[in-house]
Structure to design on (222 residues):
């Protein structure tokens, strides 16, 4: 059982390049999330999708776009990468978007922007 | 002021010691989560609490809603417990807010 799978695991970009981070879950979860983790800070929510067909901004959405492609997949796109977007990105999923459900995390994508 | 404060930031213990990690929050919540981030980076959910106490193996989590405080205890600590432990709270309407984490190192 793979759980939450993120690709790629590592990526180096130049400023201004674009890329898409992929996330897929095989647990039939309704809700999916994208977080970033920076040194000295807690995880911060970028975007989330409470259910298939819906997406909403989180705490730090600027510079990102998302697509909930289907129930399994939720992608994060950087249209024009900036050094400030150097971070570790985590995708997560949960059965429902409420406090009684744990979130299951992928292994993360380490992204460096030069 | 951060809405979720964890203490200590770093903790070094000897194998076998009893460990306590604290989490304080400043807002009303519907639930509190404890998570573990392995040295390789993966994050695993350990507990969800809205009241009282939960136990799983050598891990115990407690919450005091009135005092807005939670503790994570590890009994008979082992080097494999070395990880970053993260507290997160959920507003009744809203998303999870994460603490900065407590880095635990257990020496053999």
């Amino acid at each position: 059982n793979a759980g939450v799978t993120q690709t790629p695991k590592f990526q180096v970009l130049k400023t201004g390049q674009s890329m898409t981070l992929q996330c897929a879950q095989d647990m039939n979860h309704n809700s999916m999330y994208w977080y970033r983790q920076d040194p000295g800070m807690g995880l911060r929510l970028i975007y989330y999708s409470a259910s298939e067909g819906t997406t909403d901004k989180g705490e730090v959405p600027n510079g990102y776009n998302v697509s909930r492609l289907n129930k399994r997949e939720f992608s994060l796109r950087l249209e024009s990468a900036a050094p400030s977007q150097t971070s570790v990105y985590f995708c997560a999923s949960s059965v429902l978007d409420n406090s009684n459900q744990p979130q299951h995390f992928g292994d993360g994508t380490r992204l460096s922007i030069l | 002021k951060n809405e979720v404060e964890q203490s200590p930031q770093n903790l070094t213990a000897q194998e076998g010691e009893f460990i306590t990690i604290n989490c304080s929050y400043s807002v009303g919540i519907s639930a509190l989560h404890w998570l573990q981030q392995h040295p390789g980076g993966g994050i695993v959910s350990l507990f969800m609490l809205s009241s009282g106490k939960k136990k799983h193996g050598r891990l115990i989590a407690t919450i005091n809603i009135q005092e807005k405080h939670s503790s994570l205890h590890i009994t008979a600590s082992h080097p494999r417990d070395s990880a970053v432990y993260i507290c997160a709270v959920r507003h009744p309407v809203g998303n999870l807010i994460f603490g900065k984490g407590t880095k635990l190192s257990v020496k053999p």
User: Anything to note?
Assistant: Chain A has a mean pLDDT of 94. The longest strand of chain A covers residues 87-94. The radius of gyration of chain A is 13 Å.
